[in-house]
Specification:
By secondary structure, this protein is an alpha/beta fold. It has 32 helices and 18 strands. It is globular, with a radius of gyration of 30 Å.
Length: about 750
């Protein structure tokens, strides 16, 4: 099998991690978030993909050749953020520490370096995976060349390009020349988006043939643009064409992946404050091999009462174990138990089926529940499992209240690496044990109508899958507990995150009651208003069209009404809310479109959707509170997102009226920290006025609003306070002037 070269578009990856990871600082106060993210991705790439060769491609510091051809090229690009600039030398030091060559070419971009190296590598019989999200690189796709999206862990090949753009790689340059690229300020041809470009290339031919025969295009305006913007299209083609013949020397042996300079990396990790990376480096011996799971683990199916009695006697001798449930549903509040997987020593696990296909052995569900209840409700027996919150909710449905919650690897890994893309069992098994787990799709098939339920899976296969889950979670629990203690994070886990799991179980199990009649009434009222808006919009436009179609809306706004284009996207002129707000000052139609969008979203997302999420058994909505999603440490909620119920508009506030107490004489109480971020700011800054305001018991948002609007605190209304609150938190979290103006609707 041919060896593989990975080519990293360095700045593409740097900007991805910079925007994905919250600000971080090192021991000297220097910014480190991009350096941390790049280092983590580089380590993961080397560990998971095991490239034979690896190169980092960089931009040139010389004036870009494309600028000479087209001065407006990338003219609208903002300067590199101030807190990213000092991290570039740090990232280069990390790359050097891994002994990875960095290649650039005077006057050319990293994409051109990658294009040239790709051609040289293929000529020498290598396969190439290009680590980038830049669409320009799609022209390089070939049987030996793929694009790797490190964020999504996805490879794009020629078939993927056909699925995405409907073209072959040799058509990619002409495709981009027609469409343009808003991010690089490549103009393209107005009115030509991806779909039109695909049609033109399929029906007429190459860019030269399209420009030579514009009359073959559909639509007079498109034909006119193809005649008018010939030079613009040809310049665009030159701008998007990557150079494959730069004067670069490519010696595969210089790029062959070798052992890193561990002493240098250790110095850098200490300097940047990357304690976990330093610890992992120190614990890894150069000659060590990844720990492997036993070749033949011992999975035992407990499918008779005699076997269960033997198993139960052994289990009762344990003071801790890992429990994993197989169930009928991903929704914990609707799930019934199909099987129990239990493990208390590595590579040994037991599976107890209580539901199975007809004719296959299983035990009585109630008998198993009653036998295991004393152990599971004993706080002295410590229970581990991945995403244990789910199992606790399912157990509640079976009448068991789990008491001895101990280690959830998912939550523990979140504390160790909050910025990681995933904390799933599969990810953690690969990360800590270098083990690939059995995918669930092997048991139940891929998503769709033919996907099986877990109780339809053969007991033997279910046992293998469930026992592996329990075994891996058991191993991970011990590994992660040790890491938490070494990182001085055990107290945080044990005293905050672990007890929080039980609180979230209580919240999710209780759910919240919704008055369906209120939602139905509001839906009817909004539907009447939507119908009125549709008539008003058609009247202003002069004809009917699909209001929800950005493509048709573009035609109405920018061709028929001839309103000025505010900004472009990959598919054509933008019609987002920011654009519509600007256009609303010039014409009445955009205002109607915005109102229609807002009401349609309220109706579809909340008024009509919430009743469908009501659990038929409880009559309540049971959302999931996610403990390990937000890198900032905040909780998030989903299915539905109860943290995002609208409040800024009257219609949005009315939706909140549908959430009601479970008893007539009960009240719903809304509680929040009292301006906790501002209190921390006052403490850290020592600002006398801010500290004095808190000591007096003043409301800071009201105080700022009175100063901003020039009124007394008593005259501040809710809207004024909301503006002041946005200003205060915008300052704390480093929001830009543009971002704050957009939030407040200030031109």
């Amino acid at each position: 099998m041919p060896e593989t070269l990975y080519l990293i578009d360095t700045f593409s990856l740097v900007f991805q991690v910079y925007h994905a990871i919250a600000p971080m600082t090192g021991p000297q106060g220097e910014p480190t978030n991009a350096t941390f993210g790049f280092t983590r991705d580089l380590q993961n790439l080397i560990r998971d993909k095991k490239p034979d060769y690896l190169i980092c491609a960089m931009e040139s510091t010389e004036p870009a050749e494309r600028k000479k051809l087209y001065p407006e090229y990338k003219a609208h690009r903002k300067e590199m953020p101030e807190d990213l600039r000092p991290q570039i030398p740090m990232i280069l030091e990390v790359i050097e520490g891994f002994n990875i060559p960095v290649i650039h070419s005077a006057g050319w971009e990293a994409d051109d370096v990658i294009a040239t190296l790709t051609h040289r590598a293929v000529e020498q019989g290598l396969h190439v995976n290009i680590v980038t999200t830049d669409k320009d690189a799609r022209q390089l796709l070939a049987p030996e060349v793929k694009l790797y999206n490190i964020r999504k862990n996805q490879l794009m090949d020629e078939a993927g390009l056909m699925e995405a753009w409907g073209i072959h790689p040799h058509q990619a340059i002409d495709f981009q020349a027609l469409v343009g690229d808003a991010s690089d300020n490549v103009p393209g041809v107005p009115l030509v988006g991806p779909k039109k470009a695909q049609t033109l290339l399929q029906e007429i031919g190459t860019l030269d043939e399209i420009l030579a025969h514009p009359e073959k295009a559909r639509g007079k305006k498109l034909q006119e643009n193809l005649r008018t913007f010939v030079d613009q299209a040809l310049i665009s083609r030159k701008l998007v064409t990557l150079q494959t013949d730069l004067p670069l020397k490519f010696d595969p042996q210089q790029a062959r992946l070798s052992a890193p300079n561990r002493s240098r990396l250790s110095e850098l990790y200490q300097q940047f404050g990357f304690r976990r990376f330093a610890e992992e480096l120190n614990n890894t011996n150069e000659n060590s091999t990844p720990s492997k799971l036993p070749v033949e683990p011992q999975w035992e199916t407990v499918d008779t009462e005699k076997k269960f009695a033997t198993f139960l006697k052994k289990l009762q001798e344990q003071t801790s174990f890992c429990l994993d449930l197989e169930t009928t549903s991903l929704q914990a509040n609707e799930a019934d138990i199909v099987g129990w997987a239990i493990c208390w020593e590595p590579a040994v696990a037991w599976y107890i089926p209580v539901d199975a296909p007809p004719g296959q052995p299983k035990l009585d569900p109630l008998m198993v529940v009653e036998a295991l209840r004393p152990l599971l409700e004993d706080p002295a027996v410590l229970i581990d499992n991945q995403n244990i919150k789910y199992d606790m909710i399912v157990l509640r449905r079976a009448g068991i209240y789990l008491e001895g919650v101990h280690l959830d690897p998912m939550v523990g890994d979140y504390l160790l690496d909050a910025g990681a893309r995933s904390h799933s069992l599969e990810t953690l098994a690969q990360k800590y044990l270098q083990h690939k787990m059995i995918p669930i799709s092997e048991l139940i098939g891929k998503k769709g109508e033919r996907q099986k339920k877990m109780f339809e899976v053969d007991v033997e296969k279910a046992a293998e899958y469930a026992a592996e889950d329990a075994d891996i979670a058991f191993r991970l629990s011990h590994i992660i507990e040790e890491k938490l203690k070494k990182e001085s994070l055990w107290e945080l886990y044990n005293e905050l995150e672990r007890p929080l799991i039980s609180v979230l179980v209580e919240m999710e199990s209780n759910g919240i009651l919704i008055d369906q009649e209120i939602l139905q009434q509001q839906s009817t009222e909004i539907n009447i208003r939507l119908e009125q808006l549709v008539e008003e919009i058609y009247k202003i436009a002069g004809h009917e069209f699909n209001i929800a179609s950005p493509k048709q809306l573009r035609v109405v706004l920018f061709e028929e009404l001839e309103l000025p284009v505010q900004k472009k996207t990959k598919t054509g002129p933008s019609t987002d809310v920011e654009v519509l707000e600007k256009l609303a000052k010039m014409h009445p139609l955009p205002e109607k479109i915005m109102e229609h969008r807002q009401l349609a979203k309220l109706k579809g997302t909340y008024l009509d959707a919430l009743p469908k999420l009501i659990n038929p058994e409880t009559g309540r909505v049971h959302c999931s509170f996610n403990q390990v999603v937000a890198a900032t440490g905040r909780l998030s909620s989903s299915n539905p997102n109860l943290q995002n119920i609208p409040i800024r508009t009257t219609e949005g506030r009315n939706i909140r009226k549908a959430f009601i107490p479970a008893q007539p004489d009960w009240k719903l109480i809304c509680a929040d920290y009292s301006q906790v971020e501002l209190r921390i700011l006052a403490h850290l800054s020592g600002d006398k006025e801010l500290c004095a305001a808190f000591e007096r018991g003043d409301d800071i948002h009201t105080l700022v609003a009175s100063q901003v609007f020039g009124v007394t605190p008593e005259e501040v209304d809710s809207q004024m306070r909301r503006v002041a609150k946005a200003v205060n938190f915008g300052v704390i979290y480093g929001q830009s002037a543009y971002g704050l103006s957009a939030t407040l609707g200030i031109p």
